[in-house]
Amino acid sequence: MDKNFFSAQSFTAEELEKLRKSAEKYLAISGKNREPEVKFHFTYMALIKIGIYLIAREGYRVKSRPGHHQMMIEELGELLKSEDVVNTVT
Question: The whole model's pTM is what?
Answer without folding.
Answer: 0.82
